[in-house]
Amino acid sequence: MISSIPDGPAQFKDEESLQGKFPKVYQPQGVIQRKAVDVNLDKVEALDSSDKIELKNVFSRPTFKISRDAKGKRGYIGTAIVWSGESGAASLANKYVEGSQEWGSDERKARLGINFLINSRAEFDIKANENAESDAVIKAADTALNVLGKATSRIEGTTWGYRYKGGGLPEKTTTEVGETLASGKLNATDTVNWKKDNIVVDALKAAEIFKAKRAEKGVPYGALRSKVGKGTAEIENHLKSSNKTGEVYLHSIDADAPDFSTLIPDKKGGWLNVLDAYDQVLEGGGDHDFVIGGYNLIAEPEQYKGLNPEQDFRHTVRANVVDMTIRQAAFSVEPALIYPTEPNFLVKASTYTEIDKSTGKKNAWGNRASEGRALLDNYIKAKKDNTDIAYNPLASVPTGVGAGGARLKIDSAKTYDENSLFGKPQGDTSVKGDAIGIPQQYVVQAQSWAGATRIAGAYFAAYTAKLGNQPTFKKTDIVKYFAPVEQMVMALAQDRDPAEISLAVDGLEAHDLANTSIKIQPILKAIQEALAVLHTDVDFARLITGDK
Asked: How do residues 64-84 score in pLDDT, each as one tens digit?
């Protein structure tokens, strides 16, 4: 039994004076310090599954609906995701309203919808995150005001981020990680030790590591496009029911297009704008589920500098023609191969709703980059063999070659870097810093199907989508089987006949016998025939010579 308890803080000044005042079990030990929790940053992961990508609405208004009589003509919903750091969200929306077709004001109000998502990146720093949210709100509001009354419109603003977990870190959002970095507290009671390579690092270094992990995942383009796609059904319903349009199409666009002109001539000696071009394509071929126009590289010759700017521009356009020719030939054999490039393709709005429903809680466009491919794969999985896809590169629109688009240019002074080395021709022994010859650049050109690795990637994706599971063959073998495409392209770039290139590859015949879903030999043959025709085309030769 305790007979005496000190009755005030003053009696605790001298700990020794308390000896004997308590039984041993109650001897005061001072404030108990909890050991800091170690977080191994090497094992922390940025989580990017559909349910782990955080999308926070910061600007949202009801869809602004305009009613006019479309008289049965097709409707289009221009759909884009625009980073708030770009200055042109409102400009792009206006350019699309006024420059994607030559309709009058009433026809635009009857047939056109605008569905834009302005996005900012959530930040770990609290003040920077507030600025990101504010930027998205301002740009979204500006865009909404700019298109108000010109077309049915739905404009949203959001921030995006990943969740993080592992190495002793419980699952946290970007802002929660930021709060932990700022406070040094993992939760209400525990402090944190950030460790890298088993060495304690400070919060600034930890923040850099978190940013690097975010950068490895990149922008969640698929999640963002899936979010903006949620507005498709509402706009489609308004255009069809109130405005009496015919079939309605979602038109995927992005901010890289300098304008919306195509390669289809108009009756005035110019070129049709993209929605007028699609009207013509659909009138001639019917209402397909997908219509892929893609992009071309005929724009911005002023972006070419250096010793041979004019020739570099001509080679870029020529290489782009080669790319489109290869895609068209491959499409003629297997439509599922063609990747719907995000800057410009159509998907029937009702078809899009079917795809969205079929993916359940997952994103219709996937989670990250190559979102057009993910959307098409989900379509193929849903439709099985009942697909309806059209490809018309004449309906392509120009894309910019400045800034990030510079990788699309042929440049007589270009050398290999970390990225271009991945696309070098098969058997090429070049290393970082080596010069890239012009014929080799036709293959290396970013996103071009002249490269065996890229067309093999498309083959792998299409095969997986059709079968519903990963194939058992190796991707390296598929790259080897498509290597003749690179040889044909380099021959063409040197004014040699692609028909002279052998299509025989060790193991290819056996592969086609074992994998009948998509055979490679017919694709190679179609590509060879198309490139051989291009070799004899006078206009193709003039792209380099400049002759009239």
From this structure: 999 999 999 999 999 999 998
